[in-house]
Design brief:
With about 425 residues, the chain is α+β, with helices and mostly antiparallel strands. It contains 11 helices and 13 strands.
Length: about 425
């Protein structure tokens, strides 16, 4: 997306430069019959210098006008580079242009503007070609070129800035989360009996783990970007860099940064305090939850198995539904700490006209004496430093009060199963 926006800016610049060139020269230059005696070398030189003011101020390589006669294309004016100026070289009036592409020639017939990239004797450029009509009815073209190598360099610089911005954002986000976690730890000492404080505490208590997940998930993409940039620099230093390699590498970098952006977007949606009710897909919510916790599961060698045999759109706060899934998955992760082989199976299916989300783990069965109290506030089998016992209570409260559903738990063969029934 950033690359498309960048190229749009480049094309807008070319369009403005070409239009300004037409205004500076006027149309009369292209209103003449094809006679080289009708414009003096001095006038041609003045026209070139006039157009060169535009190229010098806008990082554009050339601005020029063209006419057609007997199926041939001729320059009627052209800016010059600094090197050409030093060598006192000016493109002559009515110099035949032999590098015209079929698309350029077609513009004389269909009178349509176009953007494109082409290589000729002057270099490789991204260009705009704009047809114009003189007052006496002659059609001519005005074009503006920018070096493709310059464009790629600017895009490369933009990607570096983009990555740097991501790094700064992550640092600020970590400080922000740490601040809230500190506030939450202080609030834990106070009264947590009110529903609002319970909900806030549960969500903030998981945010520290989410930061760890994001940092873990970003480690590999950042390494990939660094490797791609090093390869790009090596190709450039060894003169092995061409347009195809540049485009391929930049596309790879863009794909990686889009993945990183999606991770941050999911995290931002998760911690958003704005409780706007929307109609959302359970499948989409599951995918977002897994994006946030996948790295943690991988770090703990837990195999996740996702089976989607149904989907349903429900109305409510998507972030709260994700919070419920996260609570159950975190609970399952803790239950599997002592297991050699760790499995979590998530199954979304339809049963008797109801949508059921089953989350199974192969951890130790819940003792019968604890089964009736597992959803009660402040009940926990963990050490006090490891949990507050309100997660499952809040999960059940959200499902029942906000989504009018049910949250159940049962010991099944070789494990424990939580069911969300909607």
């Amino acid at each position: 997306m950033q690359e498309k926006f960048f190229y749009k800016c480049i094309d807008d610049k070319l369009k403005n430069v070409a239009y300004s060139g037409a205004q500076l020269l006027g149309d009369d230059l292209n209103n003449r019959e094809f006679n080289t005696t009708q414009i003096s070398p001095q006038q041609n030189k003045e026209n070139a210098l006039l157009l060169s003011t535009l190229t010098n101020e806008n990082d554009v390589k050339f601005v020029y006008t063209m006419v057609e006669n007997n199926a041939k294309i001729y320059f009627t004016s052209s800016s010059i580079t600094k090197e050409q100026y030093k060598n006192n070289f000016y493109i002559p009036y009515l110099l035949e242009y032999k590098g015209a592409t079929p698309k350029l020639k077609a513009s004389f017939q269909n009178h349509k503007s176009y953007f494109g990239e082409a290589t000729d004797e002057y270099g490789t450029f991204r260009s705009i070609i704009m047809p114009r009509k003189t007052k006496d009815g002659y059609w001519y073209l005005i074009g503006a070129d920018i070096d493709v190598s310059f464009v790629k360099k600017q895009l490369h610089s933009m990607l570096f800035d983009y990555i740097l911005t991501f790094g700064i954002f992550l640092s600020v986000l970590i400080l922000f989360i740490q601040m809230f976690k500190k506030i939450t730890d202080e609030e834990n000492k106070e009264n947590l009996q009110k529903q609002k404080k319970l909900l806030e505490h549960s969500k903030l208590a998981q945010m520290g783990e989410m930061i760890g997940n994001i940092a873990h998930q970003w480690r590999q993409p950042l390494g990939e970007i660094n490797a791609l940039l090093m390869k790009l620099e090596g190709d450039y230093n060894n003169s092995n860099l061409n347009a195809k390699k540049m485009d391929t590498t930049l596309q790879q970098i863009e794909n990686v940064t889009e993945y990183m952006s999606d991770t941050i977007e999911n995290f931002s949606n998760y911690i958003n305090k704005n409780k706007y009710q929307t109609e959302f897909s359970i499948t989409d919510a599951l995918q977002k939850a897994l994006t946030l916790i996948n790295a943690e599961m991988h770090k703990n060698s837990i195999q996740l198995n996702l089976i989607l045999t149904d989907n349903k759109f429900i109305k409510g706060v998507e972030g709260e539904f994700i919070q419920v899934v996260m609570i159950i998955l975190q609970n399952a992760k803790d239950a599997l700490k002592e297991e050699k082989e760790k499995h979590i199976k998530i199954h979304l299916y339809n049963e008797e006209k109801q949508t059921v989300l089953s989350i199974y783990n192969n951890g130790t069965a819940i003792p019968k004496e604890n089964m009736s109290a597992i959803f009660e506030p402040y009940f926990t089998t963990k050490f006090k430093s490891k949990g507050t016992g309100i997660g499952l209570y809040i999960a059940k409260m959200i499902i029942e009060n906000e989504f009018q559903g049910k949250l159940e738990v049962a010991n099944v063969n070789n494990g424990v199963e939580f069911k969300i029934i909607l």
